[in-house]
Amino acid sequence: YQDPPPGSPPDAAPRTQLMCFEAVTGNLVWARSWHDRGERSGEQQQQANSANLLRAYQAAHPDKPNTPAEIMLFGDRVSTAMSIIGGVVYTLEGEARPKQLRNNVRGNYGMTFAVETNRLYAWEAGAGETGGKRLWNRGGDLDPETGEEVPVKFVAAPVAHGKRLIVPVRESGALWLYALEPRENPDWPTDGEAQWEVPTVWKTFLCDEPPAGVSPWGRVGVALDGTDVYVAGGAGVAFAVDAVTGIIRWGTRYRRSATGARTGARG
Fold this sequence. Notes:
This protein is mainly beta and about 270 residues long. It has helices at about 45-60, 70-75, 260-265, and strands spanning about 15-20, 30-35, 80-85, 90-95, 100, 110, 120-125, 135-140, 155, 160, 165-170, 175-180, 185, 195, 200-210, 220-225, 230, 235-240, 250-255. The chain contains 3 helices and 19 strands.
């Protein structure tokens, strides 16, 4: 990660970079940054409130990740998720925004720098001239009424089934599974470079989030076996989905041995 720019508020989150290193020597091959697309509301007041809450949280929880850098490195498992498929690196990038949490049963305040929405990015892997080149990025589907992207949060790096990418997404308080199919579009103006479109082939509703919410840092588990996609929602539910059609084969709830109250985590 990179430290925030000079003049940033004390609670500003560090900016991330994708970096490629030579495995034998450890030498840096290339590093790329993504461009921030996030927006904040009530910026100055939010920063002042967040700074006060952060200091209180740090004093009450000295043994837990609580600075922006520590949270990014040791708490947030979504922003560090990535996969490499067919010479392409896929990452999840978004604006980390301070957010005040509700009082818990003990009356304490917590602090999170979790990403509320993000985008799926594709980068050229390898060490050649095109290494680290950004190929495309996308967020949610377009709203048919407004023509704008629906705000979503990708909650795991994608897995591949043929030419498709299968990735879990939180959208409108629910967990969905998307199948995307990136492809170059020869009909678009190119200016010498390939242009990509990444349509949604299918999307399947899995479940609503529990009333108490889920961990803002929790990563959803997703694995592929043949044409079966297995999804562990992280909140006591698991699914098997047909990778070709998106049809749910089965879903089940399971009892967990630890609760959020015991572990200090939700979801």
